[in-house]
Structure prediction request, 1371 residues.
Amino acid sequence: MQPNPTVFTPLLIAALVFFAWSCYRRFSLVTLGRGEDRFQRLDLRVWDMLLYAFGQKRVVAKPFGINHFVIFWSFVILLIANGEFLIRGVFPAVSLALLPPSLRHALLLAFDAISLLTLVSIALAVGRRLFFPPSYLNTPYVKARSFEAFLILAFIALLMLAYFGLHGAEIAMGEEEAAAWMPVSSFVAKVLLAPHSSLLIPVASFCWWVHAVVLLAFMMFLPHSKHMHILTAIPNCFFASLGKPNTQPREEFTRGSRYGVSEVQEFTWKDLLDGFSCTECGRCQNACPATATGKPLNPRQVVHAIKTNLFVNGPLIQKGGKPIVPLIGEEGEGTNTEDTIWACTTCGACLEACPVLIEQMPKIIKMRRHLVEMESQFPEELLNLFENMEQRSNPWGIAPTERTKWCSTMEVKPFTAGETEYLFYVGCAGSFDSRQKHVSVALATILNEAEVSWGILGKEEQCCGDSLRRLGNEYVFDKMARENVRLFQEKGIKKVITQCPHCFSTLKNDYKQYGLELEVVHHSELINDLLKAGKLNLSQKVTDLGRVLFHDSCYLGRHNDVYEAPREIIAAATGAPPVEMERTRNNSFCCGAGGGRMWMEEFIGTRINLNRVEEALRKNPDTICVACPYCMTMFEDGLKDKLAGQTRVRDVAEVVAEGLR
Amino acid sequence: MTEPKKTLKKPRGVACLVEGKCIACGARCQSACPVNAVEMNDAGEPVIITEKCIGCVKCVKVCPAQAIEMYFTPEEQKILDELMKQGAAVEEVDEEARAVAEKIAAYSGVWVFVEQTEGEPAKVSWELLGKGRELADALSVELAAVIVGEKVEHLCNEAFAYGADKAYLIDAPVFRHYRTESYLKAVCHLIDTYKPEVVLMGATGLGRDLAGAVATVVKTGLTADCTGLAIDDKRNLMQTRPAFGGNIMATIMCDKFRPQMATVRPHVMAMPVKKEGATGTIVRESCEVREDDILVKVLEIISDKKGRDQVDVAGAEFIVSGGRGMMGKENFAILQDLADELGGVVGASRSAVDAGWMPPERQVGQTGKTVRPKIYVACGISGAIQHLVGMQDSDVVIAINRDKDAPIFEVATYGIVGDLFQIIPAITQRLRELKQQKSK
Amino acid sequence: MLVVACIKQVPDTTQVQIDPVTNTLVREGIPFIVNPYDTHALEEALRFKDRFGFRVAAISMGPPNSEATLRKALALGVDETILLSDRCFGGADTLATSNVLASAIRRLQEQEEVGIVICGKQTIDGDTAQVGPGIATRLGFSQLTLVDRIEHLDREKRTIRVRRKLEGRHEIVEAPLPALLTVVRELNRPRYPSVPKRLASQETEVKVWSNDVLRLDVNAIGLKGSPTWVNRIFSPERDKGEIIGDGVNDPVATANLLIDRLLSKDLLAL
Ligand SMILES: Cc1cc2nc3c(=O)[nH]c(=O)nc-3n(C[C@H](O)[C@H](O)[C@H](O)COP(=O)(O)OP(=O)(O)OC[C@H]3O[C@@H](n4cnc5c(N)ncnc54)[C@H](O)[C@@H]3O)c2cc1C
Ligand code: SF4
Ligand code: SF4
Ligand code: SF4
Ligand code: SF4
Prediction:
């Protein structure tokens, strides 16, 4: 079958121009974003790209992920086939036939096999979407857009069918010398086409044109659909954040600047690229505790809103106009409501889930920054928090003189430069919350028992400012961080123990931006090291805790990759590793307190902590082990609400301290 | 044998700050110093420039915290000791003091302003008559009640029953509602005419509104919200009151001006025994105030008792709060009973709100209301920090919990370990009994 | 029309404690804050600005470091700030304080009509609630204390209608302008300063008026103009954390014990 270049060439050119124009338009929209350096460490970037974009690490980790992997790689390999097809459409003389026969045969065999595989995968994908849609595909939002998904699947299927039709017809006509290398096409030729020899020519040209038209249509449609991600996912993985996005960038406080993001072009170009890279797979939404408990927040929607907002406003902004669709405001396409923005616990589950390394949560915090810093607009409860932090450097507004009350029953040394090795940064909860004070005492006992050289800052200790930063109050955070850094530097503090994952992450990751390099350990890590090094000897196995379950804190696990230490010390103290929850380790489900949610009332939907407590109770634990003061509160409250008073909550330090008695 | 009288010159010394005692009262020492020898540092504490100091002791006298002392070199100290031995502590006679004494001698008598709303007296006024009686007796002067209003003559007899010797009465339609301007004129007129040495008012909204205005016009000192009153050896009123949010108590004097005015906290002074049938003189006065001149109009008085459903936890003076320990919605009735006895409202912990036992606007705590009542009764509340931050500024916290280790006891002024379902009704019962006894 | 908010810098009294050993006030490191009641006064002044476009001035009498308080007011949006600071203002009681503040307001009145003055109900260090009435009396303004709601402002008739919060009752009062309001916490929720305004406030001038400007009789201001003086301070008797009786075995007796205790400490009156 010989293509007809005179008809095809103009079609191809038109399609290519349209495709290029669509891509350019998107690219130019992305460049509207603010600058951001995403070019450091190219080696790591290439690796991320290979691993996540080409290796599809996160995609295959999920059921049906392998299906996507097959379709993706088929697509890549068939690019050659389709490339040949297009070129041949214009220059009939240029074809694979120009290659050495052995290579050509191998390719043809691959095309044939892969096309079949793709057809099967497509069938599976359609079947799944139709008959076993996972919960996150079952939302109104996804349903409204499933036409697009089916259309794309249909396009691919048609391409495959046309391929077999065309080649089958050619084989049947005896035009293909390499038929032996094309088993599927040969099968089609033999079984389906051979009996109708008169139709072979029309079938061949029909299939050719179907293939051609679908291919061009696919190309033109691509940039306009979520399948744009085929093109953007690769650079997106390349430009992804190198470290974990467990901290937020600093802001310069100079007159006349704007803070945070209230209009789409105030996002960085990478944020905008994220918008175009979303595959709408719903993994983030599925992992998000806010979405799961009926809050208006859905991380996918946040990313999607950026894209839709950019589409409407971008061209206006390019022309020097003003955006017409607000980024933050009343519910609507391309707009995030304030409730959405405040619902995030910054748990990082979305970040961990996204196959193409989109950074959803940081965008939410950027919008929070705008609300707090420019508009002074935030849930009422936060006013107290903000004032307390600024005036008394703790979230509850308790007099700083009470910081040392927790150790009134024991002797605790102040940190002395040159003498003390570790600063025990007690933290606000450890200093003021009567429940957490027990943990402070337990930890202090352990440190003494292991003869660690440690001291505290006492009344000089200030809040680390975690909640402020996650709530977008960067201005006050910045003030507090600078004061803390100065204090740490003055005192010559190098090593810090924290009992709170929030202090831990803030001192470790956020303060780095202020030039403070500390060795920060979470108490679970330190205790584990002490146990392993034989510096801490448990005098008895802790047996009265019964069945022990462990809950991973977001800021310990997901944000800082500490998973083993708490488990190991529980195992060491009780003699058995803890029972795991259904959602565990990097899939852990937030307790509901992060991101400053600890200071807000939870009015919408169901309570996040109850969701998690119910999950925990399904494992019938006697003791729930935590490693974070906020988790402590959330579990204690949740258990009381569930009238599950017989289940206790213990910090890992308390478990170990019990073994010392 | 007569000792040769060696005339020693009394050393004056220099002022110096006693470490850690200054309360940064607002630079009294600096303003007192006649030679500008006192500078203030950033912490609001004085730095005394010894070279300039002339040893006049003014700063020492004026400092409320006894933070400044006179410093003498060892030699000077020796001379001082010598002088002491000789008993030569000659009182320097102060011209100024004599003039003041003359001025204040013209004032006599203790007055209590009787506060009333629509003819209904405020109880604090009677409490004050009780205290006023003591003061008047200590000074051997008359105790008078000041009664201003419309159709309030009946209050005179009541004032006599509570111990007043005399009642100054201004009764006219223009005084029907309390308005600062009209009452101010009336009271100032009385003070000008009869010159009392002490004027007491209740530290209520009305009392503080009026007293502040009167003191300004009369140009005398006024001490707010006193909790203790007594007479010193120089016939001056010692007025004791909490300051710095109740963290310290201060005794305030107003010895050079008359009348000495004070507002006094309700419920602090004991209620005097009522002697029915006691009599006294009524001094009827009139005061030139015309309705047309008073532009402020009271349009409506809304009694809080009417709007029960609109409970204002944040502003309440007595709060009885229940937590999860209440076990159910219906049990909050016993808290309401107690709150009614106290004249307060019912609050709740978040647990009680979550359980649907109380509406969210009653929630006290971190994400609820911040309250500062006179008495906060926490019933079946464990005392999580989220709750504590909302109520720890209460004057008195009473905790009732069956768990003796509950953290609420850490902030409680009075704690009772036990079953709230037995204790609360017992408290309510006791209050009722006592009230009945009293009214008999 | 100008709305004047009177604000004061106070030590954060929740952090003031008496040293149990020396029996003196521990003040080390105690920060100064804007008197909490005054933040509500400021807020209401700013709401008048938002609603009616009035200009707002914040004035404060205090030592030079009170400037920080006025900067905070600037960050919240006031148009003008004046710090009344002079050695001879120091040591003032309420009578002397109201004299200085009233005189400053009179000064402001020379430039622009002052319609409303707003004060906090009281300060947390002094707790007197007397400065507001003092100013009103000196200026002859309508005196409206303990306001917990602004009902209406009639610009034509030049009257203001407010609700006052009194013991066990509320009062709706209408008064002609100019008026002085003292406000309680329930009146409003103070706003939070935005970052641009905070930064701007750092660069705006805070005017300082000394007695050279006000020219008040030195015997009527500061320590000399204060009839009252503090004779003595001492720590209050306070019992913290006393467990009363045996509530488990004898609830009735324990309840009675509690009531007796409250009565004997004058914490309760029947
Ligand atoms: C984000 C967030 C915000 C929060 N905000 C607030 C807030 O604003 N206000 C608030 O209150 N909480 C708040 N909390 C909840 C707080 O953590 C506690 O869960 C809550 O205060 C506990 O309430 P409770 O003391 O009533 O219940 P519990 O802690 O269950 O205590 C019940 C107590 O009652 C006692 N008790 C039971 N029966 C009896 C009996 N018959 N007689 C005597 N005693 C009895 C028990 O010994 C126990 O101490 C918040 C929590 C979070 C996570
Ligand atoms: S960080 Fe957590 S709460 Fe926030 S959007 Fe992501 S998954 Fe949801
Ligand atoms: S943001 Fe990532 S995880 Fe979420 S839907 Fe898009 S691609 Fe999936
Ligand atoms: S003693 Fe007199 S001169 Fe010396 S500092 Fe005190 S006030 Fe000034
Ligand atoms: S008078 Fe006393 S308390 Fe006041 S500033 Fe001077 S030394 Fe301090």
In short: The radius of gyration of chain C is 21 Å. The first helix of chain C runs from residue 36 to 52.
